[in-house]
Write a structure and sequence with these properties.
Length: 574
């Protein structure tokens, strides 16, 4: 899938390729000597990645590891999706850049050994969860009764979530890594270099916490809880620490074998070191945490991974989205009104710019995705802006990244915005009504051979019913608008009754607006939408009329001029 693309990838400028180039530079630096690195880089730049790997087998001896993190105290959400989706985009760009000659792995890491700190109000069996407070999530009993633990339940939900989107990943459990001994070697190094970790961490803490902070969180041998207690003594030669248990007794206990875990910043650094993580991105709010973890990683003898900090999503008012406040858009909500591809497109765009995540962005993201898909599938000579400029690079098109290098050939001749207006004008409550218009406009089109359009129809009906219909407000036309609409009816009457030429219809709409003296002309189109559809904006009116049907559009204008649309809106419900 990703072979034979390295020539194109060298010139790609989209952010996943820029990140992939940084990742490749790291791999070459860590695995090759200076003179070898120079030659390998030249070969890869020349599209000869396989030759580079043959000359330097160490490049393919082990996989390049990209990682994403998950806190299983809650269910996966939009933030989970965007982090895995963006990391996957970097991974795919790296594979294209190297002709897939250097193996890669994407780890989805669950911090399921964290202690349960609070009980979300919506969970069942609140009293039971309260009893298990402070215990590792993989020990906390499952309030839903479906898994061995609350952590296992949420881990299963994570895997089902990622599988549902077709992500290629490996699930790794923190609890399993601690208990199996996978982290033991690095934990013993952390114990040995306790003071170096403290030197990084203590300046970042308040005075009160500084006095008791320890990077090690022992598991109480009596209660099974994760304890945030001072380390009273440490014995690297025995691999143990001494701490005060909850009953006041002093306990000497190993830090290996799952009997202790690390605080989250040292834990992050330890994980990078133990697993050999090469790449991990994180939110802008974690910039200081990344810096601290990078320092600790070096203190442990590791090399901090490549990555970058992305901006956080904002709500409609521009406030930071919070799971506690519930002021964001959930995955289920997006997927009710828009395709998964549109969400992937939205998270691809400008990851270093803050973006609002609320319902109104879905139609725009959907239509932009459709436009990019159409552009990708257009022949190269048509993609060129003019004869003096080359066609845009397909690998820089967002849909290449959205679809993992294999965008479908499907297109959507009808935009999502236009579909919304069609739902509004036709008062469509199911897709069959919409397909009556679509199949007339696109002869031979069916839900089977136009699956993208069929999905758009369903999304449009749901979005219209929940967000457009409740706010529709028809108004009567002004004298100027009335005269222009009468003129438009005359112009439409002169066209063939079955006219589906959107450009011809649009030209008549322009002419009527200009003749009526609208300045700017967009005021004329706004008037059409407000008077005919009860909303202030919409897609190209000519395209709408061509799909809705010229005769139906004329009838709609007639209803508006007679006042029937306003009357219907204000009529009392039976």
């Amino acid at each position: 899938m990703f072979t034979g693309l390295s020539d194109q990838a060298q010139g790609a400028r989209s952010w996943p390729f820029e990140q992939a180039k940084n990742l490749l530079a790291r791999v070459l630096k860590l695995r090759l000597a200076d003179d070898e690195r120079t030659l390998a880089a030249e070969l890869i730049a020349a599209g000869k990645a396989n030759e580079a790997v043959q000359r330097f087998p160490v490049l393919s001896d082990k996989a390049v590891i990209l990682e994403t993190g998950y806190g299983p105290s809650g269910l996966p959400h939009v933030g989970t999706f965007q982090e895995v989706a963006r990391t996957t985009m970097v991974r795919n760009a790296f594979r294209a850049l190297t002709d897939d000659a250097i193996p890669t792995r994407l780890i989805s890491f669950s911090d399921d050994m964290d202690g349960l700190r609070k009980v979300a109000p919506g969970l069942p069996n609140q009293a039971m969860l309260a009893e298990d407070m402070g215990k590792p999530l993989t020990v906390v009993r499952d309030p839903f009764g479906t898994h061995d633990s609350f952590g296992a339940h949420n881990n299963a939900r994570l895997c089902a979530f990622l599988d549902g989107f077709g992500f290629d990943y490996e699930f790794v459990s923190s609890t399993e890594c601690y208990r199996s001994g996978r982290f033991d070697e690095t934990l013993l190094i952390a114990l040995e270099r306790f003071d170096a970790i403290q030197k990084v961490m203590l300046p970042t803490l308040g005075e009160e916490r500084r006095a008791t902070y320890s990077p090690f969180l022992p598991i109480s041998p009596t209660t099974g809880r994760v304890l945030q207690v001072p380390t009273l003594e440490r014995h690297p030669e025995r691999g143990t620490i001494v701490f005060e248990d909850e009953d006041g007794t002093k306990v000497e206990q190993k830090v290996t074998g799952g009997l202790a875990k690390l605080q989250w910043k040292p834990d992050w650094a330890m994980r990078w070191t133990a697993l050999g993580v090469d790449y991990e991105m994180s939110g802008k709010d974690l910039i200081d945490s990344v810096k601290a973890s990078n320092q600790i990683c070096r203190a442990l003898g590791g090399v901090p991974p490549e990555g970058f900090n992305y901006e956080l999503f904002l709500d409609e008012q521009g406030q930071k989205i919070s799971k506690t406040k519930g002021n964001g858009l959930t995955m289920d909500e997006w997927l009710r009104y828009g395709a998964p591809e549109s969400l992937a497109y939205y998270v691809f765009q400008s990851p270093k710019s803050a973006k609002k995540l609320y319902f109104d962005v879905i139609p725009k993201a959907t239509d932009e995705y459709i436009q990019q898909l159409e552009a990708y599938n257009r022949p190269a000579d048509e993609r060129a802006v003019d004869d003096n400029k080359p066609a845009p690079r397909p690998l820089d098109n967002p849909v290449w990244h959205v679809h993992g290098g294999q965008p479908p050939r499907a297109d959507a001749p009808i935009s999502f915005g236009l579909m919304l207006n069609l739902v509004s004008a036709a008062n469509a409550s199911d897709k069959a009504i919409l397909w009556g218009f679509i199949s007339r406009y696109i002869p031979g089109a069916t839900p089977q051979n136009q699956p993208l359009l069929d999905r758009l129809a369903g999304y449009a009906i749901a979005y219209y019913e929940d967000f457009v219909a409740p706010h529709k407000q028809f108004r009567a036309p002004t004298d100027q608008e009335r005269a222009a609409m009468q003129d438009l009816l005359t112009r439409f009457s002169a066209l063939p009754a079955d006219c589906q030429d959107a450009e011809l219809i649009q030209s008549e709409v322009y002419a009527a607006g200009k003749e009526a003296g609208f300045e700017p002309l967009r005021a004329w189109f706004q008037a059409l939408y407000e008077v005919l559809l009860g909303q202030s904006q919409g897609p190209r009116f000519g395209s709408f009329a061509a799909i809705f049907g010229l005769e139906r559009t004329m009838a709609l204008i007639g209803q508006a001029l007679s006042g029937a649309l306003v009357k219907a809106e204000t009529a009392p419900a039976n």
